[in-house]
Design brief:
The protein is of the alpha+beta class. It has an 11-stranded antiparallel β-sheet, sandwiched between helices. Helix 5 crosses helix 6. The longest helix has 23 residues. It starts with a helix and ends with a helix.
Length: 666
């Protein structure tokens, strides 16, 4: 990428990544008149509730025994992706609706099939799935599923074709094994050549939904440094803790009203004054009163923490065994500790000491004990007591998904992969425990990938070195930097150590695009850029670092892996090998804090991700996709993403015109 693009903008841009999820499948109804006795009835109903199938007066029947068409299944995959795109984000880098335009910006939507009309219902989902597959697996990846210029959208889809589309959710490394992998997950049954029935498709979608709602497809990947230590997801944040009848006392009504106000974000100072009154009298539900007093935004965090501990005291005073309640109360303490620890890491050890005092009150290896132990382990991690946390987690890893995840993650972080494998080998989850069964399988895949890191890094190094040895090549790309959009063609003449970039850019403050043109003299480390407003050429040095990602670009792949904890994942699809690279933001921030950038000192690197698409036969780089996010101490937020496509057979020659050099000569 050209220095001009990296240094052009300092505009701040707030980026929001929306991650919609599946709708709840609670309740029961009969959306179609022909499924009451069908074996897939429950899955079909869940699919309707999750928005996967249309129902109503315009669709009174489902036709579960009819063959599903290619277009119908593509639309189903599109809707499944909409619910599970958060899990795929580390591999797609796609923000919501990015697929509507090629490269999120300039060109009209494009589809490689002549028989999918733009005006039909099937066009948009097919476009989106095509774009997602392109991002995951390389140019025209959908052609590996439906070859040729015609998709034949109304043709019945086979099990194998369906599996190749579902493969995106499996982390399979080889497209040749898509059917075997999808079948091993239990999503499809039968033979690869069988035609897929609509009822079978509904059942497969139901199983896939359950899978996507459990864990991410790369459970050990923590690309932004915010995922670990893992703690359970709390389903109900605003319980009453006690069941109340319609005939409530005045105190009970006061309490219920306070909880409703907090739940609906309508709480005021009076809400907490009323809770204080209930705390000071003989009101029986002291667990709930102190729990909600800890939510008071007007009091210091230290006071909130005291209330959170009082709610746990009340729990033990009641002498009841309610693991879900203790889990919520412990989670509340942990959440407040995270807020306090953000300013003073010493708070973690203080909170840990207080929370651990409750452990002797519990019988070890019970569900009640686990509901407290998972947060004690998390606080031990935060307090720097990693070894102690690992011992704790491993005692109940076979029964608790988050304990297993944390154990595997921190063992891997310390380079103890064999221990992580040994731990995983001991796991024998019950077939009825879908989450643990899926998690063990995902962890096994990921540990196998981690052992391949040196080999993948070597492959990527070879490809990038091959690019450096090419005498000339051409790059066509689009990039987005803090609100600015760029589209360009870059000719690189390695023989002359020079390049020429021609295209246009658009400022967020302007509706009209401006011309983009630069020449770079690699030997003298000078770039000449055309200023459209001044209608003249200017020169800039290229050897000064502006951003953290520029510095990372100067590091070898081996150095990134060894010193920056870079993580690599390799997949093969069609003619391409695809290598994804993630570097944890915390590692980059730590390594770069003593470096000097023109933007100032770095405060945080929240994202650093690359995808490299490599032609398997030639080992040539075909495409590069990236997304970086950096925050500097002057509060400047830099969001930089883009796509470059390479043509290494292009024979280009670049000479910097004399008039350009003369115009900027002092």
């Amino acid at each position: 990428m050209q220095k001009f693009i990296r240094t052009f903008s300092c505009v701040l841009l707030a980026a929001t990544l929306l991650t919609p999820g599946f709708a709840s499948a609670a309740g029961g109804f009969m959306p179609y008149g022909d499924i009451s006795n069908h074996w897939a009835k429950t899955s079909i109903i869940r699919g309707v509730q999750a928005g996967l199938f249309a129902a109503g007066s315009s669709a009174p029947l489902f036709y579960p025994n009819r063959d599903m068409t290619r277009a119908e299944f593509v639309a189903l995959i599109d809707r499944l992706y909409n619910g599970g795109q958060y899990q795929l984000y580390p591999l797609t880098f796609l923000s919501e609706h990015a697929e509507w335009n090629r490269g999120e910006g300039f060109e009209e939507p494009y589809l490689p099939y002549k028989d999918v009309d733009r005006l039909t219902w099937m066009y948009t989902p097919t476009l989106r799935v095509s774009y997602i597959l392109d991002r995951l697996y390389g140019p025209h990846a959908i052609a590996q599923v439906f070859p040729g210029e015609q998709m034949k959208p109304n043709q019945a889809i086979t099990h194998e074709e369906a599996a190749k589309l579902m493969q995106m959710f499996t982390m399979t490394g080889d497209s040749q094994k898509a059917w075997e992998e999808v079948k091993s997950w239990g999503w499809l049954e039968g033979e690869s050549t069988d035609l897929l029935k609509r009822g079978e498709a509904a059942a497969a979608a139901d199983r896939l939904m359950t899978y996507l709602l459990q864990d991410t497809i790369l459970p050990l990947l923590d690309y932004d440094g915010s995922k670990f230590p893992m703690v359970p997801e709390i389903q109900e944040l605003f319980p009453l803790f006690v069941t109340y009848t319609d005939s409530k006392t005045s105190d009970e009504q006061m309490y219920v009203n306070a909880v409703e106000a907090i739940r609906n974000h309508e709480d005021t100072d009076d809400t907490y004054v009323e809770l204080e009154k209930l705390a000071s009298n003989s009101f029986s539900n002291q667990i709930g009163v102190h729990f909600y007093l800890s939510w008071n935004p007007s009091t210091p965090l230290a006071d909130n923490l005291e209330e959170a501990f009082r709610s746990i005291d009340a729990y033990f005073q009641d002498k009841i065994i309610l693991p879900d309640t203790l889990r919520l109360l412990s989670a509340n303490v942990y959440d407040i500790a995270l807020q306090m620890g953000a300013n003073d890491s010493g708070e973690y050890e203080k909170v840990l000491k207080r929370l651990a005092a409750y452990e002797p009150k519990l019988k070890q290896d019970t569900e009640e004990w686990e509901s407290l132990a998972i947060y004690l382990g998390a606080l031990e991690i935060k307090a720097g007591l990693k070894d102690k946390a690992l011992v704790r987690y491993e005692t109940f890893a076979s029964r608790h998904a988050e304990a297993l995840l944390n154990s595997a993650y921190y063992l891997v972080q310390e380079g103890r992969i064999q221990e992580a494998e040994s731990l995983l080998a001991k796991q024998k989850p019950k077939p009825s425990d879908e989450r643990m069964t899926q998690l063990v399988k995902l962890l096994g895949q990921e540990l196998a990938s981690l052992k391949q890191q040196p080999s993948i890094a070597t492959d990527l190094t070879y490809t990038l070195n091959h690019l450096d040895r090419v005498s000339s090549y051409q790059v066509k790309g689009e990039a987005f930097l803090s609100g600015f959009s760029f589209k360009y063609t870059q000719d690189v003449d390695a023989t002359r150590n020079s390049s020429h970039t021609l295209g246009f850019y658009q400022s967020p403050q302007q509706l009209v695009s401006d011309k983009l043109e630069t020449y770079t003299d690699g030997q003298k480390k000078i770039q000449y850029s055309y200023d459209t407003k001044k209608q003249s050429w200017e020169q800039h040095p290229t050897d000064k670092l502006d951003f953290v990602h520029e510095w990372v670009g100067t590091q070898s792949i081996q150095d990134r892996m060894n010193n920056l904890h870079a993580r690599y994942y390799k997949q093969s699809f069609g003619r391409y090998d695809i290598i994804t690279e993630w570097i944890p933001g915390a590692a980059l921030t730590e390594k770069a804090k003593n470096l000097s950038f023109s933007r100032g000192k770095i405060k945080n690197v929240s994202l650093y991700m690359n995808k490299y698409y490599i032609d398997r036969e030639s080992d040539e780089l075909v495409k590069h996709v990236w997304r970086y996010e950096e925050i500097y101490e002057n509060r400047e937020y830099v969001a930089y993403s883009g796509t470059d496509q390479y043509n290494l057979s292009s024979n280009v020659k670049v000479s910097i015109p004399d008039e350009v050099r003369k115009e900027v000569t002092p």
